[in-house]
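1st attempt posting a full record on here, be nice pls
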Amino acid sequence: MRKGLLGAVLCLAMWSQAALAGTVLVLGDSISAAFGLDTRQGWVALLEKRLAEQGFSHRVVNASITGDTSAGGAARLPRLLNEHRPDWVILGLGGNDGLRGLPPAQLQQNLAAMIDKAQASGAQVVLLGMLLPPNYGVRYTTAFAKVYTTLVEEKDVALVPFFLEGVGGVPGMMQNDGIHPRLKAQPVLLENVWPVLQPLL
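the predicted structure (as tokens):
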């Protein structure tokens, strides 16, 4: 009788732990896809490792694709939401829009649509903010940066002000192309995201 009761309690505890766990969906571009590195070395893999180390049993799904834009992410998100049912969605898109000189208004529209879909599914959203180098011109870089702050005000989402803080433009942190972070930059990217994400978990 005791063995049966103990077994039932253990099963209930395991079920409760699984029920409390959630899914984190990362939808980004080459930075989150760990371009030039083994994906197991990227910041998303480090996030999964940290969650486990701190006792979270959350599942992390990395749906990031090198070269992806906000339009591509907006097209892919509905299927990802349906397939993975995430509790948190980390949006790390926009960098390629900026590098291609696409209209900031279009970026804002695409990100807003993704945020709306994610929130409608019950997920909390973390937006990874990006900044462009000054050679794109003051008018464009200012309009681009404003997209993220505007969305935070309008959509009530969490924001990492500058995802590449401590990495972008820092000697030795970027690969030879000057666009993609090196291996040693991956922990820095995680530290940029973690203080914003952790309170939501």
